[in-house]
Design a protein that fits this description.
This protein is of the alpha/beta class and 217 residues long. It has three helices and 13 strands; from the N terminus they run H-H-H-E-E-E-E-E-E-E-E-E-E-E-E-E. The protein has a single domain, classed as Leucine-rich repeat, LRR (right-handed beta-alpha superhelix) (Alpha-Beta Horseshoe), CATH 3.80.10. The strands form two sheets. The protein has a seven-stranded mixed sheet. A six-stranded mixed sheet has the order 2-3-5-7-9-11, with no helix packed on it. Bound molecules: 2-acetamido-2-deoxy-beta-D-glucopyranose (3 copies).
């Protein structure tokens, strides 16, 4: 009798250990987002956390290893805020959340998205500062944060984003001066317009970045 009880428990433990949901880290990260946002148009209805992986969910694209590479949720009428768990999507290349009504701050964990090519968060209601951790995104080509309520200085570290082709931080409430070194030397002033407290360009060699130009109170 006891041996059957023991076997039963062993099988149960094995099933729990092998169960797909325990290995579904990326699905869990996306499901945390689903729980943090209001979704009046039910665009996230197919996001079922009991599935093996999130690759069959609408607006999610995976690669051949069933790892998430795209999240396409632009213009989806989402409100609420982002979650730090998103930073776990190591193969994510496109994070498209533009034209929603998302608010709150940009999680510094977004700096963990080491495959990211495009970060499109424009036309939302994000506040707080631009996380310096975004400078870890060495593949980033497109960084569009325009039309939010972002404040603070533009992190100087972002100039080391060697792949950066397009930056748009216009229509926010940024302050200080904007850097012109590194990848920023290719950008036009259009990238920075309509930030009433932002002055610049930074004058290399003459004015220190942290000078009093551009009130940052
Ligand atoms: C967005 O959601 C709101 C409810 O929160 C609804 O009234 C509105 O019609 C939706 N807009 C679109 C374009 O679906
Ligand atoms: C960014 O990289 C630095 C080192 O290069 C590391 O200390 C930091 O934790 C990283 N940040 C994120 C959010 O990945
Ligand atoms: C933006 O967020 C603020 C709170 O941070 C809120 O008071 C405001 O109503 C939001 N704007 C819109 C258009 O939802």
């Amino acid at each position: 009798m006891a041996i059957w009880v023991l076997l039963f428990h062993l099988v149960t433990v094995a099933l729990v250990l092998l169960s797909p949901t325990t290995a579904n880290l990326e699905g869990d990260a996306l499901f945390a987002l689903r729980q943090a946002v209001k979704d009046p148009n039910s665009v996230l209805q197919s996001w079922d956390p009991t599935l093996v992986d999130p690759c069959t969910w609408f607006h999610v694209t995976c690669d051949g290893d069933n790892r998430v590479t795209r999240l396409d949720l632009g213009n989806a009428n989402l409100s609420g805020s982002l979650v730090p768990e998103l930073g776990k999507l190591e193969r994510l290349q496109y994070l498209e959340l533009y034209m929603n009504n998302l608010m709150g701050s940009l999680p510094k964990q977004l700096g963990g998205l080491k495959s990211l090519v495009s970060l499109d968060l424009y036309h939302n209601n994000f506040s707080g500062t631009i996380p310096p951790s975004l400078s870890n995104l060495s593949n980033l080509k497109f960084l569009r944060l325009n039309r939010n309520r972002l404040t603070g200085r533009i992190p100087r570290e972002l100039t080391k984003l060697q792949s950066l082709k397009i930056l748009d931080v216009s229509n926010n409430d940024l302050c200080g001066t904007f850097p012109t070194s590194g990848s920023f030397s290719q950008l036009s002033e259009e990238s920075f317009k309509n930030n009433p407290r932002l002055e610049g360009p930074e004058l290399m060699g003459f004015v220190r970045y942290d000078s009093t130009r551009g009130s940052c109170k």
